[in-house]
Amino acid sequence: MHGGIDHRTSVLFVCLGNICRSPMAEGAFRVAAQARGLAALVDSAGTASYHLGHEPDPRAITVARKHGIDIAGQTARQIERDDFYRFTHIIAMDRANLEGLRSKAPRDGTARLAMLLDAVEGRRGEPVADPYYGDAAAFEAAWQVINRGVEAWAERLLRETAQQNA
Ligand code: 4NP
């Protein structure tokens, strides 16, 4: 790549429906990145198409708002071919999401695929449980885990960016 500008970090968070976990991750990561001075493009998508065009689940909006983050403006979309070239990192919430991504990834796609908790010390490969069939407590628990994950990713990506620019 030329000139350095292409090294800009871009992160796509992916779950099944893009109405619960990945919208929370998108919102939480924006704040975690900003807090650390990490310039990153952020988006989220689902592997499934059930909820295209929908705003996040009201329970996800409520828990995010409780933590001071507004995710109400997001709109669900499905992962698409271009995403595997446009984003530097595509981060899945659970193993099924990751397998879904792998099955859709073009052979020459450039995005790195990983799971959210891979960046958290001692929790590599662990899933973020789907809160969709749970209650408000399940959403609060999901928020806590997701926040842990996005903070770890923000730290990791900050280090990678620093190394690339060194
Ligand atoms: P998400 O949760 O993948 O975290 O957005 C779900 C949302 C919808 C469904 C499943 C999970 N669903 O089966 O419709």
Residue share in helix: 40-55%
CATH topology type:
Rossmann fold
- Write down the overall geometry: globular
Low-confidence stretches: 1-6
Query: What profile does the largest beta sheet have?
Result: 4 strands, parallel
Q: Tell me the number of helical segments per DSSP (H or I, 4 or more residues long).
A: 5
Rg over CA atoms: 15 Å
Instruction: Tell me the CATH superfamily.
Output: Response regulator
- Average per-residue pLDDT, rounded, comes to 95
Summarize the helix and strand pattern as letters.
EHEHHEHEH
Placed side by side, the strands forming the largest sheet appear as 2-1-3-4
Count every beta strand, where a strand is a DSSP E run of 2 or more residues: 4
Which range does the strand content fall in? 5-15%
